[in-house]
Amino acid sequence: MKIVFLLHNAYAIGGTVRTTLNLAAALAEHGGHEVEIVSMSRHRESPRFAVDPRVALVPLVDTRDGSPDTRQSAFRKPARDFPAAEKRYKQYTLLHDQRARAYLTERCDADVVIGTRPGLNVYLALWGPRRALRIAQEHLRHDAHGKKLRTVLARHYRSLDAVVTMTEADAAVYRARMPLPGVRVLAVPNIVPPAAVPPSDGTSKIIAAAGRLAPGKRYDLLLEAFAAVSVKEPDWELRIYGGGAQEQRLRDLVSGLGLTGRARLMGAVSPIEPEFGRASLVVSASDAESFGMTLVEAMRCGVPVISTDAPLGPAEIITDGVDGRLVPVGDARALAEAMVDLIEDGPGRRSMAAAALASAHRYDPEPIVAHYGSLFTQLRASRRRRTWQRFRARAANWARRKVRSARGAWPGRPGGTPDDRRRSTPSRGTARPRHS
């Protein structure tokens, strides 16, 4: 079976890039599939992450300075088909639209095509080969999309075969708020391969955190909580890995809280597993998580994780009190208390570390590849039935619109036009006819 992934930029660093490469490699190795990744853009010579040699990489638009693509007139015009409400819209051009359409309608011979972000899922709905299974992956939560984008997606996702979210909680939100007759909506978690480093021995006095230095990750809350921890446990150190717009603000906060030398911003590091392997705790203070890759990566390194119980991922990854701790979102005190509890309870911390390492096997490549294989089989077997469901839903919607239109046009009905209502309602000062 040939499987094609549509990816924003396979040459960049990002969670979706990494998880797509992991899944592509696993489908090739464990599923025996022919796999191709189609990168909408290419901004450098080589990908930053290693690409499995069994996976073909096809860039569509070369955005490097001086490339022939940048001299095309279509490259200087905004995209027309990529949705304007999508976060990446400004990175797409008319040339991207043209190349994506040409690839999907003329070159794509896949049995399965998987889009990996909303705008690419729209491309897939518009032009994906009808003989192929067309699957939209959602790496962001439903509620992370704006209202305008959700409206666009609801219209286009109806023509796809499946929508795959990263968590069951998010799949439930899609089912409730974006009815898609004939479209399978389900959760399949990301693959997180086993760490290529020995598990942490749990003896260091290091707490680690990793991710973009963005407001939603709440490193300000983590630093506030660690300030309270450091009063009781002055020998422990906090290391934050990542880069982003909030770096200077967080450096100022470290200084302002008197944590210089005890809380360190380490910059972006890849791979992160060797750093987690040096820690005894990993902490996440996020307000929301679509999945929580760093949580699983830490567990893969035999490190217990303390996380806010953020929607939607952490509670599906961490079993509170068994392989980690969950605390209320936005509660610095609860976060600090959980850190102190595990710092002071060495045996409990080591027990959680062992449980975390065992629990992380849920994200091994083999079971997730098997899950996708089962999904492909079910979608093919149910294709006729799902087409009928889609047809019935469209017919019912058409009938409802006709009924509303007929009611609105009937004189005297509350839903009629203003002219209808004026004709059917006596004007003031006009005598009503008397009945004998």
Structure commentary:
The chain is of the alpha/beta class and 436 residues long. It has three domains: 2-189, 3-Layer(aba) Sandwich (Rossmann fold); 206-363, 3-Layer(aba) Sandwich (Rossmann fold), CATH 3.40.50.2000; 385-424, no CATH class. It has 15 helices and 13 strands. Strands 3-2-1-4-5-6-7 form a seven-stranded parallel beta sheet, sandwiched between helices. Strands 10-9-8-11-12-13 form a six-stranded parallel beta sheet, sandwiched between helices. The radius of gyration is 27 Å and the shape is globular. The model is unreliable at 415-436 (pLDDT under 50).
- Largest beta-sheet characterization: 7 strands, parallel
**CATH overall fold name of the largest domain:** Rossmann fold
Number of helices: 15
Helix content: 40-55%
Morphology: globular
Tell me the fraction of residues in β-strands, as a range.
Answer: 15-25%
Q: By helix and strand content, what is the structural category?
A: alpha/beta
- The H/E string reads EHEEHEHEHEHEEHEHEHEHEHEHHHHH
Q: What integer value in Å does the Rg equal?
A: 27 Å
Nearest-integer average pLDDT: 92
Low-confidence stretches: 415-436
How would you write the strand order of the largest sheet? 3-2-1-4-5-6-7
How many extended strands? 13
The total number of structural domains is 3
**What's the CATH first level of the largest domain?**
Alpha Beta
Q: Give me the CATH architecture of the largest domain, please.
A: 3-Layer(aba) Sandwich
Query: Termini, distance in Å?
Result: 83 Å
* Fourth-tier CATH superfamily name of the largest domain: Glycogen Phosphorylase B
